[in-house]
Amino acid sequence: MHNAPSYYKAHKFECLEEMRMIFGIKAVKIFCKLNIWKYRYRDGHKPDTNDSEKADEYLTYLLSLEKRGVKWLLLAKKI
Fold this sequence. Notes:
The chain is mainly alpha-helical.
């Protein structure tokens, strides 16, 4: 995620990218959907947080995974 704090970038890959490599795109999509739900659910109820922004970041990442999947399907059909 582009606005991830430095502790999420302490390794070679960002945490979500590493999760994608280890658990697969399908699992990470589910993870993103669950986090979007969580942050929308508690938005405005947890002090000193911008849960709406966090939800939007997960949604952006989820959409980027969806776009990658479409590109990969198109490439596979050409082969």
